[in-house]
Fold:
Amino acid sequence: MGHPIGQFLTRPPHAPLPVRDAPASGRTRGRRILITGAAGGVGRATAVQLAAEGANVALADVRVDAVEAAAAAIAGEAFAVHMDLAEPASIAAAINAAEAKLGPLDGLVNCAAIVIHADPLETSWADWEKIFRVNLFGAYETSRLVARSMIASGSRGAIVSVASEAGKKGHVESLAYSASKAALINMTRVLSAALAPHDINVNCVCPGGVASDMLREVAVAYGKLAGKAPEDVFPQLVSSQLVRHIEPVEVARTISFLLSDDAIIIRGQAVSADGGDTPY
Ligand SMILES: NC(=O)c1ccc[n+]([C@@H]2O[C@H](COP(=O)([O-])OP(=O)(O)OC[C@H]3O[C@@H](n4cnc5c(N)ncnc54)[C@H](O)[C@@H]3O)[C@@H](O)[C@H]2O)c1
Structure:
């Protein structure tokens, strides 16, 4: 790994830290959890992780075939629903379908998102709308409807959104994406306060470079800007302390913890899960 531009390192980089095995904890056993973006890297790993812990999971995504395949590969109570986060009617229908199958939800993972790269002074109105519809409005509408259902059924639930280190630090080449994640972090804080009287816990995680299709997309976009091949860029999008990509399952374990009763004193937080790159 080369030295990041603008920083002088006095020590050579250490060897990559291995991914550790962790037995499934059982901390979400029996819970009924909806996961959006469940055909993607982090969402799918989260569904697998929660199902292995004994949770009953509904996997939602706009890509029907991919989310059905993801659900079919899970042993245990797991099924797929179509959900387009850009369309409120689709969100409501997906939540109804999930509850018809699982019963009242007591967990939600807002994981779906899109990223668009553009010059920070050339981001089009249409791209701002597209990103915010999915990453923020869709996450809000899903949270709102699931929270209302939790309140109606008296579930002591939890909502975990997947934000990003970009929501804290901001990425120059994805301004609208970064802003959508900053807004998601703020929404987390406000919903946490609003839902505390109902014993619903709300947090978000802020991953760094996770080995998924989205990061491959980032490598293509950065490669174009820097005149480099994506396969040369991708290996550089790593955590400085882990000296490797974060694996989707590692984010999934953090999400599982935040969904569980073990995290009841952690509220309204944006937990950095980026291998140490963001200092807060
Ligand atoms: N990969 C990274 O390096 C990274 C870093 C920080 C944060 N994140 C966040 O992690 C989350 C998961 O990303 P990932 O890395 O698994 O990416 P991914 O592209 O593999 O998964 C995203 C999923 O969201 C789905 N989706 C997109 N638009 C949708 C819509 N309108 N309705 C429903 N589903 C839709 C996609 O079909 C896809 O399955 C995202 O919120 C992303 O912003 C990722």
About this structure: The domain at 32-209+247-273 is CATH 3.40.50.720 (Rossmann fold). Residues 36-37, 39-43, 61-63, 83-86, 111-114, 134, 162, 164, 207, 209-210, 212-215 surround nicotinamide-adenine-dinucleotide (CB under 6 Å). The beta strands are 32-36, 56-61, 78-82, 107-110, 158-162, 201-207, 270-273.
